[in-house]
Amino acid sequence: MRAELTRHPSRRGDALFRWLAKSSGWFILALLVLIAAFLVIEAIPALQHDKSNFFSTLAWDPDQTGEFGIAALAFGSILSSLLALIIGVPIAVGVGLYISQYAPRAVARPLGYIVDLLAAVPSVVFGLWGLIWLVPTLIPLSEFLNKWLGWFPLFASSNNTYGKSMFAAGVVLAVMILPIVAALCREVFIQTPDEHIEAAYALGATRWEMIRMAVLPYGRSGMISAIVLGFGRAIGETIAVALVLSSSNVITFHIFDPAGATIAANVANKFGDAGATGRSALIASGLVLFAITLVVNFGARAIVRRGSKEKRA
Which PROSITE patterns does the UniProt entry name for this protein (predicted)? Predict the structure, then answer.
């Protein structure tokens, strides 16, 4: 009887913790549904008022002409985010590997603090840095790439005018997502079991071979999660992109041209002066951004789940 009485409080605590954990999970799901419902309800007036194809037109003037399109904005959001991932992810993974596998403890600890501190810099600071210093600095590099790689459409300039561009936005976003991806990769790499590392060394592997055979396969799912988190940060960024990217609703693969816009930057630039229909149209574009983020997250989860099944098999 005394043993049952002593176990009873812990059993009650387990039940309370289980209830709190389950409630937290359902709360997040309900919050996601409420956000989606809000966006849909607020976007309906603009969609009913739309006089053109919402997904194909390039014009954005919902209050006057009733025309507003998401195609160019969605294209710009995805392109700038992909550029940020292409530039930032390899550097971030390298930083995570250096801190966790190569750097001595005296260097790894302060370097980790610096990386974490970089993630706390406000977006407007990155935007001002990009506008004042980065955009002029990238002009010679853009000219060089256009000269030698201009045969490829991505590096070609249609009018030889450089400055605010999708390339500059991608570089700024790459710097912004770098600390997040690097910090997550570092934590994943540190958790690699010592048995895996010692087994690789026992087989005669070098440091790089050990990382390739033990560290990277073990941290693959964590790296994918870090990349998705970085993509979410990049595609939703507003102020920094608005400062370094000229707002023009066009679809172009020429990343050096002063053209392009993103959904988040368009919302930041147009929301203050928009009327009732304009605000509804901006919320409709936010709904599309919300859908893109969900699709990317579900795709990443599918990749991670498939990798886990292959690892167990």
Answer: ABC_TM1
